[in-house]
Amino acid sequence: MSNKIDKYKTKLEKAEKKIGILEGMIENRTRELYTTKVERERQNKELEQFAYIASHDLQEPLRTVTGLVELLQQEYKGQLDENADRHIQYITESISRMDQLVKGLLGFSRIGRERTLSEVNCNTVIKAVINDADHLIKETGTHITYSKLPSIIASEIELRQLFQNLIHNAIKFRKKDAAPKIEISAIKKVDIWEFAIKDNGIGIDQKNHDKIFMIFKCLHTRGQYKGTGIGLANCKKIIELHDGKIWLDSEPDKGSTFYFTIPN
C-alpha cells in the first residue's frame, strides 16, 4: 500500500509541474501573438486558432490528470499526507484556471468578429448590467450612481461587456473597510463622448497603469484576487474597435477612475 501511494504522489508531482509549464506556455504565446506589431485582424485569427488548438490539445492530458486526482481522493481518502493533499489541491485549482484561461482567450479573440452597430442607449445598458449583478451588488453593499448618459452608435453586446467588466472590476478591487461606491458619467467633447467610471477602491500605482490593459496581466497574487487578467484587455479591445481610447487616473488607496472615449 505504501509503495502504491508513493507512486501516485510521484505522478502527482510530475503532473503538477507539467500543468505549470503548460499554463506558462499559454500565457506567453498569447502575449507574443497580441503584442506583435501586425494588423489586428491577422492577430485575432491567429489567437483564435491558437486558442482552439490549445483547448483541443489540453483536453486529453487534463482528463487524465483529473481522473488521477479523483482516483486518489476516492481510494486513499484520509491516507495521504499533507504534502499529497497540497499537490491535489494545486492540480485541481490549476485545471480550473487553465480552463478559464482558454475560455477567456477564445472570448477575447472573438470580440469584434460578428458585430452590428446601432444606436444604443447607455442608460439602458447600465440598468441591464446592474440587474445582472444584483446579487453581487447586494452582497458587497455596492452603491452605483450614474448621471443621464447619452445614446451612441456602438455594438450593444460589446458595450454591455465593457461596462460589465469595469463595474465588476471596481467591486472586485474594493477596500476591506469600505463598501464600494461607483459613479458613472459622460461628457461631450467636440466629436467624442468621454465616459468616466469612478470608484473608491484600493487604487493602482501609476507604474502599472499601462500594464493592466495587457492580456493575462494580474497585478495581485491569485490568493488575493481571483481572475485571469483578461477583463481589462477585453475593454481595451472593445474601445479600440470603436475607434476610441481608454486610460485611467489612480493612486494606491485613493480609488480609480477609468476613462474611455467613443466617437460622437
Outline:
The protein is of the alpha+beta class and 264 residues long.
Could you characterize the architecture of this molecule?
The protein is built from seven helices and seven strands. It has 264 residues and is an alpha+beta fold. The protein has a five-stranded mixed beta sheet. The chain folds into two domains: 1-110, Helix Hairpins (Orthogonal Bundle); 118-263, 2-Layer Sandwich (Heat Shock Protein 90). It is globular. The chain has helices spanning 2-35, 40-75, 82-110, 122-132, 134-140, 156-172, 231-241; strands at residues 117-121, 143-146, 151-155, 181-189, 192-199, 246-250, 256-263.
Characteristic terms for this protein:
single chain, 264 residues, alpha+beta, Helix Hairpins, Heat Shock Protein 90, 2 domains, five-stranded mixed beta sheet, two-stranded antiparallel sheet, 7 helices, 7 strands, 55% helix
